[in-house]
Amino acid sequence: MTPNIGSTDRIFRIFFGLVLIALPFIGNIAFFEPEWVTVASVVIGIVLLATAAMRFCGLYRILGIRTCRM
In the chain, fewer beta carbons within 10 Å around the N or the C end? Predict the structure, then answer.
């Protein structure tokens, strides 16, 4: 797998991944009351963190997007 996620994209993915994982648990926000919304938020956050760690996004590959310089 060749990297297709650049530095800026990686920083955004890490930030939003951490926010999506933490937000349902740190605040008493009505949006996260249904359990499926909390689970979806955490799963999406984990996916964002994983793609940032691997510097590879399968969806980017399918769409032909590349945000890194190589």
Answer: C
